Predict the structure.
Amino acid sequence: MINPVVRSARISAFRATVPTITRQFHSSLIARETMGEKVREMGHKVNLKVGQGLASAIDTGEKVTQATKEKMEGAQEDAKESKDHVEKKAGDVMEDARKSKENLKKELDT
């Protein structure tokens, strides 16, 4: 039988001579990412793109709203001016009609 001390020395010597081989399965940082990390990163990118798209849509909506408001204010002013003009014309026509009526009445009375 082999002495336990000798046996321990043989095992230690054997282990020291056997080279340990470490093999890397991944050669780049990107390849080392886990599936969860890839999904998380993709979700983050999608979130950013959607956020940018929504921000752009909101900005466009605000611009359209402002332009519509300005056009409506201009249209209101134009309508008021037109109304004033029509009222003035109507007043002038009524005055002319009154004068014509008086002139006709004078002519018929004479």
